[in-house]
What we know:
This is NELFB factor. InterPro entries: COBRA1. By secondary structure, the chain is an all-alpha fold. The chain has three domains: about 45-125; about 160-370, no CATH class; about 375-395 and about 410-550. Helices cover about 65% and strands about 0% of the residues. It has helices at about 1-5, 20-25, 30-45, 50-60, 65-85, 90-105, 115-125, 130-140, 140-145, 150-155, 160-180, 200, 205-215, 220-235, 240-255, 255-260, 265-280, 285-295, 305-310, 315-335, 340-355, 355-365, 375-400, 415-425, 425-440, 445-450, 465-475, 485-500, 505-515, 525-530, 540-555, 560-565. Helix 15 (about 240-255) packs across helix 17 (about 265-280) and helix 20 packs across helix 25.
Amino acid sequence: GPGQAAMYAGxxxxxxxxxxxxxxxxxxxxxxxxxxxxxxxENGVLLPSLQSALPFLDLHGTPRLEFHQxxxxxxxxxxxxxxxxxxxEGKVEERYKKLEDLLEKxxxxxxxxxxxxxxxxxMKHLPKVPEKKLKLVMADKDLYKAxxxxxxxxxxxxxxxxxxxxxxxxxxxxxxxxxxxxxxxxISVLHNFxxxxxxxxxxxxxxxxxxxxxxxNVKLYDMVLQFLRTLxxxxxxxxxxxxxxxxxxxxxxxxxxEICTVDPCHKFTWCLDACIREKFVDNKRARELQGxxxxxxxxxxxxxxxxxxxLCDPFAINTLALSTIRHLQDLVGQDTLPRESPDLLLLxxxxxxxxxAWDMIDSQVFKEPKMEVELITKFLPMLMxxxxxxxxxxxxxxxxxxxxxxxxxxxxxxxxxxKFLQENRIACEIGLYYILHITKQRNKNxxxxxxxxxxxxxxxxxxxxxxxxxxxxxxxLLGDEFALEEFCTSLFDGFFLTACSRKENVHRxxxxxxxxxxxxxxxxxxxxxxxxxxxxxQSGEAVKELYNQLTEKLELRKPSPAEVxxxxxxxxxxxxxxxxxxx
Length: 583
């Protein structure tokens, strides 16, 4: 049948007889048995010693096909070993000449399943498969699929669209994985989005697959970077920036110098990677990073676009912001102003560069964003004054109270603070990290004081997934406060619910939080929240699913009428009722 025809495709071109020839011989002959014998002799294994052995196998009922198949498999293994050996021996030109000759001879059999692995093996070892052969492979879906990645790279490097089709599902998967972590039902202060070390993240499936697809091919690496830039521009999704850094560092781990030495961001990214691992930028590394930024030469400014993308990676921003908060606390203790601290100024410079990545790549104007003086002279000192307020309040609490009575915690916030959070991106980012910091310290007073400033922030940063993911994690430390009506009203009515209806993601994060803490929330408040958070027709699947989970949990908590009357709990285990055996 047609299947048979495919199996022996290409044999005739090589002058090897196939089934069709046998059919023809038998149709035109007078003594079929003699003809078959002659065909076997002409096309069998040509080894004199075998002539006597074959009848012996016949006696044992071993079909000739089985015998030929085992000989064939043995030979194919030997041939594959030999091809791999040729690829490593002798002078370079000679060995490739041998392989090219072999490819020329065997390529017509590439459709034969039994021979295909040999042809594929030859191509895999050729650094440059002839263009004509690549075109034939590309035109045939099955052949393309069966190709080794070494051959596919040669096809991809001249076919950006085809390479894009291969890479695209991986990039989608990557973004989805990131979002799954941000929206995960496990809420914890210890295990959050930023807990995984850079080394561990680079072991992820997508990064590993992309690394494998690129190999040492600079052209393919550049294509992937171009895809990431384009997608970042199109979607503003910062996870593409993370992937940009992870991919470079994955190639760094494998010591692929062919690529690392030509990526001008390599050393900067390597140094920053060490800071991300420590979640802190120490002085020595700060100097090093500054050296790279100051070393950008005239005419090479374009590298700033790449550096800004590396700094826009949320893991980098997280590290820079945490370091900034730590520096501010140190400055309070040293009685130093922000403008007198070169380390702090460098952190702000890198935050600006990272936060300005989208605008820079979009406008193609490669220069560092101007730092707003007021950020340094007004906003940061204001944050430092909040730290001082906390110290003062804590000391006051410890002093013996005189007639004056206890000093209340400052409840108002400077209007300038709210304005900065609305109008200045860097101020907003640092402000949000300061709020995460006080929440982690279980500082309820400071949290409630600053919370109102979060309702309107620069480009709604306070309602972004990364901030809400971290905030919900840190709020688990204030779990006991959820029993208080006033705390819940400030947090839910004053903050979360102001955005729930217009921002699906906020709706999801509130539901995540309640799934985790519902047992701590005052019952009356819980009931009103359940009403307020009911999904609408417009709500997506994720919100409906979370809401159903919450409703189920709350149903389980309601005491049934029987339980209310019955005071002593039964200590005895209930007898188990045997269930009918399942079929």
